[in-house]
Amino acid sequence: MDFSALSDRAASGRIKRYSFHRSMRGLVLRRGVLAFWLAVLSGASVAAAKDIAVVSNKGNTANSISMPDLVKICKGQTNRWPDGKPLTFITRDPSSPEMKLVLEKIYGMPKEEVATLITAANHGRANHPAIMVVTSDEDLVNKVENMPGAVGLVDVYSINGGVTVIKISGKLPLEPGYPLHGN
Fold it and tell me: Does 179 or 49 have the greater pLDDT score?
């Protein structure tokens, strides 16, 4: 019997098994990396979900507002607070990506129609506009803080101590059931 042929066959089997295990290890590693990136990306989409807060100038007496009243304010249909003080709504540009949630849940119309609505609400009100458009959350918070009667909608993580957060239908941002919670 030729033992060299058996040892060549055994060596060949070991090489095949080694190659198989090596390729399986690479496959498992690639799947692990894929699973890692899927987890990271799904976490990013959760992090992108945001709550929008209603913030008011500290001089305003309102601490809660109903959703229908908020819609009227955002559309420029309400120009005074219940105590009679003038009201100005401060908002981000309707075409900005941050406004998607507001367009869906407050306006229920496309950004072009909201822009037209803002123009119409401000018609003939040059000295005291019903709605002011700003370019950033920081500008919005600063404008609300420094303008008596101002109210605005802003990402909860942009709020500072210079403004008051107003409840919507008895709920604060981040509470279950809050109407301006992003998905």
Answer: 179
